[in-house]
Amino acid sequence: MRQVHEIRRSILDIDELNNAQLPINALPEEILLEVFSLVEVAPPLSGGENCSRVSTRMAIQAVCRHWRRVLCSNPGSWRTIEVRSRSEWLRICLERCADAPADITLHPRSHTVDTWLILAQHASAIRSMTIRGLDESGRTSVVGLLVDHQWPILQRLKISPVVYSSRAPPPAIRHWVHDREYPLSALSASPKRRINPPTYRPLTIP
Fold first, then answer.
1. Residue 177: pLDDT band by 50, 70, 90 thresholds?
2. Total structural domains in the chain?
3. SUPFAM superfamilies of this UniProt entry (predicted)?
4. Are residues 84 and 168 in the same domain?
5. What pLDDT sits at residue 149?
6. SS3 for 18?
7. Cα(52)–Cα(55) distance, rounded to whole angstroms?
8. Dist CA 8 CA 139 (whole Å)
9. What residues are paired with 106 via a beta bridge?
10. What interhelical angle do 65-72 and 2-20 show, nearest 10?
């Protein structure tokens, strides 16, 4: 088994040397990153959920080691984060963002306890957040998340509730069936001062 591993490693090393001879890999990293960004924003060749910035980024990483190193070492390439289900993807992107302000979009299947915990850990790096398909229980979690942590650079918060097709929404959230967008200069809070909290910027979630 060890011998097989060494053979595979040798093949990868040879492939890396061959890739290094390609003209595109002779480009400066700044230009290569610009090419990556153009690919990410290009219209998909086919429809479907998989045709997203996430899948494009994963495909770029899979081309060769050099492309993966260049992409993963650039914080700006990870600042636009779209999470459809796996909270682990959110954690990876936020860690690779480093000091770059992050713009996050959360889809319904990503509304988990793990997701809220990761957001709390990286609250100081989040510039905008869009939460789609938020239900009643998720709404409570989001309110607690916003109040209990500091968000020094948060400028935009957009919340879209669950979409009800044939039946009317439950009475508890019947008044809350449209997208809500909250432009913020920043949202600060201090969990240590729960009795006499600081003054918050206007934020209303019906």
1. very low
2. 2
3. F-box domain
4. yes
5. 92
6. helix
7. 5
8. 49
9. 83, 131
10. 80
Domain end residue (candidates: 73, 89, 106): 73
**CB-based contact 152:124 (threshold 8 Å):** yes
User: Tens digits of per-residue pLDDT, 194-205?
Assistant: 434 444 455 555
Residue 80 β-bridge partners: 103
Residue 129: give the domain boundaries. Answer: 79-206
Residue among 123, 80, 117, 75 nearest 99 (CA): 75
Q: Is 84 exposed, middle or buried (0-12, 13-18, 19+ CB in 10 A)?
A: middle
Most confident of 9-18, 44-53, 100-109: 100-109
Taking the C-alpha atoms of residue 130 and residue 159, their distance in angstroms, rounded to an integer, is: 6
Question: Treating both helix axes as pointing N-terminal to C-terminal, what angle do 87-97 and 113-121 enclose, rounded to 10 degrees?
Answer: 10
Summarised one tens digit per residue, pLDDT across range 117-169 is 999 999 999 999 999 998 888 888 998 999 999 999 999 999 888 765 555 55
**Integer Cα distance of 103 and 125 in angstroms:** 9
Transcribe 30-65 into DSSP letters.
HHHHHHHHHHHHSPPSS-STTSSHHHHHHHHHTT-H
